[in-house]
Amino acid sequence: MENLAAYFVTIEDPRAINKRHNLLDILIIAICAVVGGADTWEDIGLYARSKEVWFKKYLELPSGIPSHDTIARVFSLINPDEFGKRFLSWVRTIKEIGGREVIAIDGKTSNHSYDWRNGKGPLHMVSAWATSNRVVLGQVKVADKSNEITAIPELLALLDLKGSIVTIDAMGTQKSIAEEIVKRESDYILCLKGNHETFKNEVEEYFNWGEKERYKNIVHDYYETIEKDHGRIEKRQYWSISDIDWFQDKSEWIGLKSISMVKATRKVNGTTSVEKRYYISSLDADASLIGSSIRQHWGIENSLHWVLDIVFREDECRIRKDHAPENIALMRHMALNLLKNDTSLKRGLRGKRLKAGWDNDYLAKILFNS
After folding, report:
1. From residue 39, how far is each of 36, 325, 335, 359 by CA, in Å?
2. Largest CA distance in the chain
3. pLDDT tens digits, one per residue of 111-155
4. pTM above 0.90, yes or no
5. Is the dihedral of CA 306, 307, 311, 312 positive or negative?
6. Where would you tag: which of 156, 246, 254, 265 has the fewest CB atoms within 10 A of its CB?
């Protein structure tokens, strides 16, 4: 417990009065409860009372177990930026991220976290996901009346990106973001869509011409994969080209070295569909590396967003007051990292949460091995 507590003990207590319960005790109780299956403040309070004997072995609890109202009030007051910085420091102790790690940057909305009465829309967070190590590296809230374009640079500034490959969907395809990634000694793969319509159309026309010519006299790299599953056949083809001197604004995109096209051909029950996507990158024209990095980015939907909604019921969460939505989202990320870090139980995350709620020894193993 000391290893986990060490990173949060210095968080400034936001309470001016009514400090009957230690801030660190409240933080540890909440983290354990979310790991063990609690999704609401009421769940966290019930969990804490049910585990009171166990918590007394590790925490001070000068006034016993805090009520769920007290826990909710404290998390509505805690500075999320400070909490997030402690989270980043802690993440580095449970996983060593280095080498050619693909770091996927993507946003997610908690649809029921809105508070229209007080003029607050739903919480939208941009997260960084280490695709190989399968941990959340950090997150930043998208400010009200803003978008991911402003939040992504804030998130990048928090992370150690050296040597990594950063993948971002079309919203993050911005010259300033590309420059920031290169400045941090990493590479980027950015998706081209309608927000850069002229650039996207030029790249699309170039690849259309290349296909007609069967890429004769065009220096390129090619890679493909074929997947078959339950009557579905999906062929993915990747072309990467480094001959992009024809692009007039190339110099404005710092580090730009290649363009790529992904062509996905799906056959399901006799019906065929074709989809093409286009990307720019600071990597050389290596279709295998770029293609596998793009595939890993797509995995953030199943590995992070789907898990948060299905296993942690994030999309149903109605926690709305002040800083509470952002802080509870961060605790879900902490719980997710702790559970994924455990390899002793060969069960899915839902099963691990259940066992952590039932079995104190297993909960201790998750926490103390972190």
Report:
1. 9, 12, 11, 18
2. 77
3. 766 665 666 677 888 999 999 888 999 899 887 767 889 999 999
4. no
5. negative
6. 246
